[in-house]
Amino acid sequence: MTNKMGLLNKSDDYYMELAYKEAERAFEAGEIPVGAIIVYNETIIGKGYNQREMLKDPTAHAEMLAISSAAEYLDSWRLEDCTLYVTLEPCPMCAGAILNARIPRVVFGAYDDETGMCGSIDNLCDHNLMNHKTTVIGGVMENKCEIILKTFFKTIRKQK
Asked: Which of 83, 89, 106, 144 is deepest in the core (most CB within 10 A)?
């Protein structure tokens, strides 16, 4: 895709690949392999991977860590011109944080039929009762994002 000046813009696949690298870091750390990055003006300003076990923190989801990192970078809680890329569909907590941060666009990889709140169970990001709406694009690199999750859980089951 090219912009108005004819320069090549980076695609959703390009950025999802970078979020996937964060998921690999989670996998290597023994965490559920979910990774996230936040992009502002084609620059990564926040990133994170699941660290619930490592930090002993139920809120240490990839999205939450990436949002905190991006807010610190911009010195603002409003992430109005950003896109969040995450390898797994956000849960209710993360969808709420996305709305609170005013992130206008979310791109995710694998759907989550158990806790997904960006299209699977419901779409909190496009709910009529909310004061902010977020455009959601799901299924980017879906197979690759699913495979790392399935591999992780298969490995965990073998260890038990």
From this structure: 89
Average pLDDT, the chain: 93
Measured CA to CA, the distance from residue 152 to residue 25 in angstroms comes to: 12
**Any catalytic annotation for residue 63?**
yes
Please state, in angstroms and rounded to a whole number, the distance separating the CA atoms of residues 74 and 46: 10
Residue 16 near residue 40 (C-beta atoms within 8 A): no
Active-site residue (options: 63, 72, 80, 114): 63
Helix or strand run (H / E) with residue 56: none
Tell me the pTM: 0.92
Integer CA distances (angstroms), 48 to 24, 37, 107, 118, 145, in order = 11, 6, 15, 19, 16
